Amino acid sequence: MKRQLKVVVTGGPGGGKTTALDLFRRELGDTVAIVPESATVLFSGGIPRSSDEQVVKNVQKTIFALQQNVENIQEKQYPDRLLICDRGTLDGLAYWPGTEDEFFEEVGSSIEKELNRYDAVIFFESAAASGRDIQSNNPIRNESSTQAAALDKKLQNIWSRHPSYYFVGNSESFVKKIMFGIMTIENVINRHNGGYVGPSFVPEFTK
């Protein structure tokens, strides 16, 4: 039996990752298990957002621990399935109101350890990075376009340190972007399973 593949799908707010994940899950059915976004689980459960620095730190530490535990649950519950994480443990670093060293000291980990949790990272660039609207029906999302663009840059800086980092850039067509993102996920899986022959990277969309 092949080792379980664990992939992070992440990106700035309004990048289309949720749409891509939903379509991909419908396509693959029982061969894939999705790890839900921990921040959404927490905030939709009644925890309010706050601008207080200490509260933000406590929230991010909680999200970090929740993300780790939910990933572990899905790994054990679905050992034969492809595991796709809707964001990963390092996303909270972009929201941390302090230094990177402080973040890892508080959560008891390191950048190397957290990157090693995942076999690949697929990053969906926020539409806000190209000046596009990011309005959605997600009541949990509260970032402005300016905030979303800034978060997108922070998240890129964090996740691009992974040796298997794939970038899905913006396109004039949202549908084409989503299809390219799904194709990128498929290529990562095929490469892991030994069925992919091609370059060691997936080219990004040109804007």
Protein described:
The chain has 207 residues and is an alpha/beta fold. Helices cover 44% and strands 12% of the residues. The chain has 7 helices and 5 strands; from the N terminus they run βαβααβααβαβα. It has helices spanning 17-28, 38-44, 53-77, 100-107, 111-115, 145-159, 174-192; strands spanning 6-11, 32-35, 82-86, 120-124, 165-168. A 5-stranded parallel sheet has the order 2-3-1-4-5, sandwiched between helices. The chain is globular and about 45 Å long. The termini are far apart. Mean pLDDT is 83; it is low at 195-207.
SSE map:
Blueprint: E1 6-11, H1 17-28, E2 32-35, H2 38-44, H3 53-77, E3 82-86, H4 100-107, H5 111-115, E4 120-124, H6 145-159, E5 165-168, H7 174-192
Parallel strand pairs: 1-3, 1-4, 2-3, 4-5
Question: Which features characterize this protein?
Answer:
alpha/beta; 12% strand; 207 residues; single chain; 7 helices
N-end to C-end Cα span = 41 Å
Structural class: alpha/beta
Mean pLDDT: 83
Outline, from the CA principal axes? globular
Helix content: 40-55%
Q: List unreliable stretches of 5+ residues.
A: 195-207
Beta-strand content estimate:
5-15%
Tally of strands:
5
Largest sheet: 5 strands, parallel
Radius of gyration: 16 Å
- Strand arrangement within the widest β-sheet reads 2-3-1-4-5
**What is the number of helical segments per DSSP (H or I, 4+ residues)?**
7
Question: Which H/E pattern describes the elements?
Answer: EHEHHEHHEHEH
